[in-house]
Design brief:
By secondary structure, this protein is an alpha+beta fold. Helix content is 45%, strand content 21%. Among the domains are: 25-122; 133-256, Jelly Rolls (Sandwich), CATH 2.60.120. It has helices at 2-25, 36-55, 61-75, 79-90, 93-122, 256-292, 303-311; strands at 133-135, 143-145, 153-159, 169-178, 186-194, 198-205, 209-215, 223-232, 242-252.
């Protein structure tokens, strides 16, 4: 037991020594140099200020410098301190690269969040993202609906772009929650406009639960634009009657393997349906043929044939009735 305790202590000391060595090898900024977190926070605001100064028209050099001066004042550092930090991190390029990767990620996240707010405000769609499974919904995901004209409909329209592909399928989904004990009459519609035609479907949603529509067509070409709506038929009522939540519009790319599998399955189904239809037609023809067969008229016999028929006609013997015996009484 004593030996086992010493062995575990040595093992713990060994790992602690390794951790100390690794931590001592990590790059640490010296005094007077911004830390990695301080550098990251400053660079985000610094690049935002430069972007604003270069974007706004009719800006002089002094005007653009004012944006940068505000950033230095916000973070409480001087230009000399920033220049020294840039010089030091340039000599430790791996650390500097990691800082800029985090800066780019944070700026992109803030840009996406801002674009979504603008889209909600202006009711305009965002450019769709490239990927196999992408949520295209750009409006609010939760909506309260009543009988008011301004609150009884949620409509959308999306134009296709380069991220769309032929044979894409669209999956429109939402959770309906009636807010009254009375039944509601809500309708959910999805319409795909293709190069060669239109595909549309409407569902009635009158109770609590998920409702979804999936549309896809292989023969009408590429999708031009997508339209749809959620409509509450509650005329004459002015209080909230329906809450629609978790609205999604998923675009699904179809791989070549999936496309060939679906095409083969559809071809097999069509062949089976054609065979069943042919069999049904053949059966109907047979029934009609059997009913169309006419009975041959009875042949008229000559007098000689009639006499012969009477001669050979079998006579059925008749039984004589039994005679009752009478008993004589004395």
């Amino acid at each position: 037991m004593h030996l086992q305790f010493h062995f575990s202590m040595r093992k713990a000391l060994f790992f602690a020594t390794i951790l100390l060595v690794v931590s001592s090898c990590a790059v640490r900024a010296p005094k007077g140099i911004l830390s990695t977190q301080e550098m990251e926070d400053f660079l985000i605001d610094y690049h935002k200020a430069k972007a604003v100064g270069n974007t706004i028209p009719k800006q002089t050099a002094s005007d653009r410098e004012k944006y940068l001066d505000f950033v230095f004042q916000k973070h409480g550092i001087t230009e000399a301190q920033f220049d020294s930090s840039v010089s030091w991190y340039s000599q430790h390029i791996e650390t500097y690269s990691e800082i800029y990767q985090r800066v780019n990620t944070r700026i992109q996240d803030e840009k996406d969040a801002l674009n979504k707010l603008i889209s909600l405000r202006t009711h305009k769609q965002l450019p769709t993202t490239v990927g196999d499974s992408i949520d295209l919904w750009y409006l609010q995901r939760t909506v309260m609906m009543s009988g008011l004209v301004t609150e009884n409909r949620l409509a959308f329209s999306i134009r296709s772009d380069r991220a769309f592909e032929e044979k894409d399928s669209l999956y429109y989904k939402a959770f309906f929650r009636p807010l009254t004990t009375d039944s509601v009459a809500a309708f959910m519609n999805l319409q795909l406009n293709y190069a060669k035609g239109t595909e549309s479907k409407t569902l009635r949603a009158d109770s609590l639960g998920w409702y979804s529509i999936k549309l896809q067509n292989d023969t009408l070409g590429s999708i031009k634009y997508i339209k749809g709506f959620i409509y509450l038929d509650a005329r004459g009522t002015y209080y909230p009657q329906l809450l629609v939540d978790s609205i999604q519009l998923i675009r699904l790319h179809q791989s070549e393997e999936q496309a060939s599998y679906i095409a083969d399955s559809l071809a097999t189904i069509k062949k089976e349906q054609a065979a069943k239809a042919k069999k049904k037609i053949d059966l109907n023809k047979m029934k009609k043929g059997s009913s169309a067969v006419k009975k041959l008229p009875a042949q008229r016999l000559s007098p000689e044939q009639l006499r012969n028929k009477e001669v050979y006609k079998e006579k059925v013997p008749t039984k004589e009735p039994r005679r009752k015996s009478l008993k004589l009484t004395k």
